[in-house]
Design goal:
Elements (H helix, E strand, L loop, with lengths): L1 H16 L12 H4 L12 H7 L4 H11 L2 H8 L6 H11 L2 E2 L14 E3 L2 E3 L3 E3 L12 H12 L3 E3 L7 H16 L5 E5 L5 H13 L4 E5 L9 H6 L9 H9 L1 H9 L15 H8 L6 H10 L3 E7 L2 H9 L4 E4 L13 H12 L4 E4 L6 H9 L4 E4 L1 H32 L5 H4 L5 E2 L16 H4 L6
Parallel strand pairs: 4-11, 5-6, 6-7, 7-8, 8-9, 9-10, 10-11
Antiparallel strand pairs: 1-12, 2-3
Length: about 450
């Protein structure tokens, strides 16, 4: 051992002197260093810097969690029961495989889509979400403005915290200013026990230029959101010692909350202080297919039924007069153990045929998820939590960042798959899902390949 050390010591000067034949060294030159120095002045706009640093929706979620009080973050992030449906829905997207097509000479990908009588610049829109100003004071205004600027539709919920008329004003103003055309907007209806007031809302939606009505049918009662129970979530939030401590970590949220107009459901009048009591008190568990027919008679525009997960319900909805279907498990927030919407898409498409417009939501957090949904039979997709993470991370600018990230991921996935347009993806067979893989012959299982492949549509 000591011999080795001695040898080391005597070797060292020689090694230092020996020239490396592969690497010629020189003294650093200032002229060569200068172009590499990219120090920029620290930005005063910390929000922009924060959002620019988010590389995907998960990064926006991390920022959102840091900046939003726990009851509001968990209200968005959570799901029903054991959150099994929510988890399975995410896992289904992750389990898909995409087949690249090489050397197809695709110079660019056109992400625009015709849906519900409008052209959306991107193959996704914003899903209806209730209580949105709880997540960030800019709420629906922020979402509608970012959607109009990006040229995609914004959906307002019956449980929204901004009125139909205000959302219409924001969406038109921003759309006209940034794209030279009013923004597209859709209205989501929960049917009330009070039919007169439902009718009043439908008429106001029509007058305010909401082109499509989505009737949500998966909420006869509120799902059991255990995180909300554990957090003791109330409307408006209670000011307890815990909330005061929370405020010291999230000063911007609390400052916005306390210095803007009070948080209310703009389309409802209510006295309930927790969401399940509110929903259970107002909405109608006796809703039947007759009510859908009644809405059809009252609404002259396009009508989509939201919350369809089976072929049978697709058929009943279409027979009652629906123009289109929204395959959705409500982001796993209603019936826990309900089917994964991406899996249900196949049977709904097979029943509806190639010409009925089908929108898919639940579980979308990346452009690859959007591509998978389109290739497996959807015409369009909606994002719920993905946009709310952006909103919580930075208001309208955060929603814009979420849209930008998803658009870029969709574009890159399409380019790598050699798809020049959304129509190229649809029916291409380029997305494989494990649940669609045919069983070996003689297993007795039906061959799903014919039903699952959406027909190529123009
Ligand atoms: C916080 C929150 C509130 C929601 N409120 C409504 C609502 O008022 N009406 C409705 O039809 N769907 C509502 N949804 C469901 C969404 O429209 C959509 O179906 C779901 O978010 C899609 O799943 P994703 O969040 O994984 O994208 C809500 C979802 C969230 C996350």
């Amino acid at each position: 051992m000591s011999r080795m050390n001695r040898a080391d010591r005597t070797d060292r000067p020689d090694r230092m002197k020996r020239k490396d034949p592969l690497m010629k060294r020189q003294f650093p030159q200032l002229s060569e260093l200068r172009p590499l120095l990219q120090f920029s002045r620290p930005s005063l706009d910390r929000r922009s810097a924060r959002l620019a640093g988010a590389a995907d929706i998960n990064d926006l979620r991390t920022i959102a969690r840091r900046r939003t009080p726990r009851p509001a973050f968990d209200y968005v992030d959570g799901a029903a029961g054991q959150e099994l449906t929510a988890r399975r829905t995410r896992e289904a997207f992750a389990s898909t495989e995409m087949l690249p097509r090489i050397l197809h000479g695709t110079a660019a990908a056109d992400l625009s889509v015709r849906i519900a009588g409008i052209t959306s610049a991107l193959p996704f829109g914003i899903a209806p979400t209730g209580f949105t100003r709880f997540m960030h004071a800019e709420g629906e205004d922020g979402g509608a403005a970012a959607a109009a600027a990006a040229g995609i539709p914004f959906s307002l919920s019956t449980m929204g915290t901004r009125s139909l008329e205000q959302v219409a004003e924001v969406s038109d103003a921003v759309g006209n200013e940034e794209r030279g055309a009013p923004g597209s907007r859709w209205f989501q209806l929960y049917l009330w026990k009070d039919r007169e007031r439902s009718l009043d809302l439908i008429q106001r939606a029509q007058a305010a230029g909401f082109g499509t009505l989505m009737v949500t049918v998966d909420t006869p009662v509120a799902g059991q959101r255990l995180r909300d129970v554990r957090n003791g979530m109330t409307i408006p939030p209670k000011l307890s010692l815990k909330t005061v401590v929370d405020a010291s970590y999230r000063p911007e949220w609390w400052f916005n909350f306390l210095t803007t107009d009070p948080l209310t459901f703009a389309s409802l009048s209510n006295t309930a202080t927790d969401l399940p009591s509110l929903i259970n008190g107002m909405f109608d568990p006796t809703l039947s297919i007759r009510d859908l027919e009644w809405i059809r008679g009252a609404w002259p525009g396009r009508l989509f039924v939201k919350g369809v997960l089976t072929a049978e319900d697709a058929r009943r909805s279409l027979d009652a007069g629906a123009d289109g279907l929204i395959v959705s498990n409500h982001g796993g927030r209603q019936l826990d153990r309900a089917p994964v919407s991406l899996k249900a898409l196949t049977e709904v498409r097979a029943e509806a045929g190639p010409d009925v417009e089908i929108i898919l939501d639940s579980g979308i957090t990346s452009g690859a998820d959007i591509v998978a949904a389109l290739a497996l039979g959807a015409d369009f997709t909606l994002i719920g939590r993905a946009y709310l993470y952006g909103l919580m991370a930075g208001g309208r600018a955060g929603v814009a960042r979420a849209i930008e990230l998803l658009a870029e991921e969709t574009r890159v996935a399409m380019m790598l798959m050699g798809a020049a347009s959304v129509a190229d993806l649809q029916g291409s067979g380029q997305v494989r899902a494990p649940w669609l893989t045919a069983e070996p012959a003689g297993s007795g299982a039906p061959d799903p390949s014919s039903a699952s492949r959406p027909a190529r549509r123009n």
